[in-house]
Amino acid sequence: MEFFTSYDGTELAYHVVGDGPAVICLPGGPMQASAYLGALGGLSAHHQLIMLDLRGTGQSAQPKNPGTFRCDQLVDDVEALREHLGLDRMDLLAHSAGANLALLYLSRHPENVERLLLITPSVMAVGVTITGDDRLRIARLRRDEPWFSAAFAALETIVAGKATADSWQAIAPFYYGRWDEAARAHRAAEDGQKNTEAAKIFAADGAFDPDTTRRALARFRSPVLLLAGEVDLAAPPGAMAELAELFPHAELVIQPRTGHFPWLDDAEQFVTRTVAFLAEATA
User: What is the CATH number of domain 2-127+194-282?
Assistant: First the structure.
C-alpha cells in the first residue's frame, strides 16, 4: 500500500497489484473501499493494477471538508494520483459508480486518458435513465434460480419505493451470475467497507451536468471498452448500449451469464476481453 497527498492535504491510499503496464482503477459503491476489486479476476497477471481508495474509504484519510466527497470534487484526487505517479497519460478502469468519476475526469482532462475501460458502469453522470421495469425485466431472466422468488419479491418492494434494509439484503443474489460460495464470500467482505455518509454526498446537487459531460464524451477520440453483464440489473445491457453510443469509438461487450461483478462470475472471459482490448488499443 502506498500513500500520496491530494490537492487539499488529504492523505490518500492506493494499492498496487501485479506487474506490467499500469492501469488506474476506480472503485464503485459509491464510496466503497477498493479491496472488493481484488486482482480483477487475474488481470493483475498482465497489468499492474493501481487501485485508489477514495477519500474517506479504505486506508485513505477523512477530508476536513465533507463536501469534497461529491463526485465532481473527487476528480481532483484522480488528477493528483496521476501526477504523483508521473504518468503523462493513463489507462483508466472504473467499476459501477466509479464510472461516474471516470467520466467526469475524462470531461475535464481528456488529454490524460489513453484508454478507458468501464465495467458495468453507473450512468448518473450522463443522465441515462434506468427504470424499475428495466431492472425487473433483467431480474426475470433468473426465474429458474432457487432463490428467485424471495429476491424478486424484495426487488418489487424496492421498485415500488417501499424498500427496507431487509429488501436490499434479499436482492444480493441478483448482483452475481452465480449465487455460490464465492459470491456469498464476496458480498460478506463488502459489508462495512462502504462510507455510507460519503455515499450520500457523492451524487448531491451539482455533482453532475449530463449535457456538458455528453458533449465531452462525443469529442473523446481514444478507445473505450464498455463491459456489461448479461444479467446485471444494476447496469442493464440496454442502458449500457445507450452509454456506448455517446462515444465515437466505444466497443460494447456483453459478457454472458454474468452480473455486476463479471471478473468474479467468469474471470477467464473477463481477463481475455480486457487484455485483448488493451493490446488492440496499443497496436
Answer: 3.40.50.1820
Residue-level pLDDT, tens digit, the chain, 283 residues: 999 999 999 999 999 999 999 999 999 999 999 999 999 999 999 999 999 999 999 999 999 999 999 999 999 999 999 999 999 999 999 999 999 999 999 999 999 999 999 999 999 999 999 999 999 999 999 999 999 999 999 999 999 999 998 999 999 999 999 999 999 999 999 888 999 999 999 999 999 999 999 999 999 999 999 999 999 999 999 999 999 999 999 999 999 999 999 999 999 999 999 999 999 855 4
3 state SS for 98-156: HHHHHHHHHHHCHHHEEEEEEECCCCHHHCCCCCHHHHHHHHHHHCCCCCHHHHHHHHH
pTM for the whole thing? 0.97
Domain ranges of the chain: 2-127+194-282
